[in-house]
Amino acid sequence: MTQSGSSPLTAAVALVTGGSRGIGRAIALRLAEMGASVAICGRDAKALAATTADLKMRTERLFSHAADVTSSAEVISLVEAAQQALGSISILVNNAGIGGFGPVQEKSEEDWDKVLDTNLKSLFLVSHAVVPSMIRRGGGDIVNIASLAGRNTFAGGGLYCASKWGVYGLSGCMAEDLREHGIRVSVVAPGSVATDFGGRGPKDSTKVLRAEDVAHAVAMIVTQGPQSFVSEVQLRPLRKS
User: What value does the mean pLDDT take over residues 63-69?
Assistant: First the structure.
């Protein structure tokens, strides 16, 4: 087990949804390196096992669980098991998400449900399960991974953009509902990221973000001062494609 630098999150318990790969994996590893106890979930058992093995090199205080975060029953089971294993969750990163691109007229109701349930409904379900314990503790951080597609439209992006615009709207309202309880709700909105996420086509690796860039933004949010509230971070590649 190794940790780099200081450990500002030694008292923190973090849950990262979609934490087995891509952006979620990078966030989970970064939070573990910062001293947090880390719980991750995902639907791909192989990827979940691989990331769990990597986390074990950074912390002994971890929990991994196969879960479908679009199911309320599975979410409740996940949160209860994570808190039983590690303690009350103080950092929630709602990262689970999928693509689903193409013209609206070519998409089905099933396509709509899959994208909106994964990208938006899951955020509601997991937050709903975690928030009561945060209120009892008198604080916490919820970081919702959105996208610049939540502020911009493009051809073929109907389902995805709708889900991410929803993330922005829900996050803003949650922030107002929860700030009086000492709970900060923030949005991190990256542009194109070099992951295996089902995007709109091949990406030039020199003109996209890394998953670690998103993890850096999350790390900044969860280590801000107690009187500070960074409500939104937008991340763009330095060089335009």
Answer: 97
- Find residue 39's DSSP bridge partners: 15, 63
Query: Could you say which of 82, 160, 161, 191 is catalytic?
Result: 160
44-60 burial, b for 16+ CB within 10 Å, e for fewer? eeebbeebbeebeebbe
pLDDT at 3: 47
- 3 state DSSP class of 162: helix
* This model's pTM is above 0.85: yes
Helix (H) or strand (E) holding 140: strand 140-145
Q: Name which residue leads in pLDDT, 199 or 210.
A: 210
b/e map of 167-188 (b: 16 or more CB within 10 Å)?
Answer: bbebbeebbeebeeeebbbbbb
Handedness of CA 62, 64, 70, 74 (dihedral sign): negative
| Percent of the chain that is helix, strand, coil (3-state, to 5) | 45, 15, 35
- CATH assignment, 13-226: 3.40.50.720
Residue 144 · residue 169 · CB < 8 Å:
no
Q: What are phi and psi of 95, to 5 degrees?
A: -115, -20
Quick one: which of 126, 139, 117 has its CA closest to 19?
126
Instruction: With a cut of 70, say whether residue 36 has pLDDT above it.
Output: yes
Helix (H) or strand (E) holding 206: none
Active site residue 160: yes
Q: Is the pLDDT reported for residue 52 higher than 60?
A: yes
Q: What is the mean pLDDT of residues 206-216?
A: 93
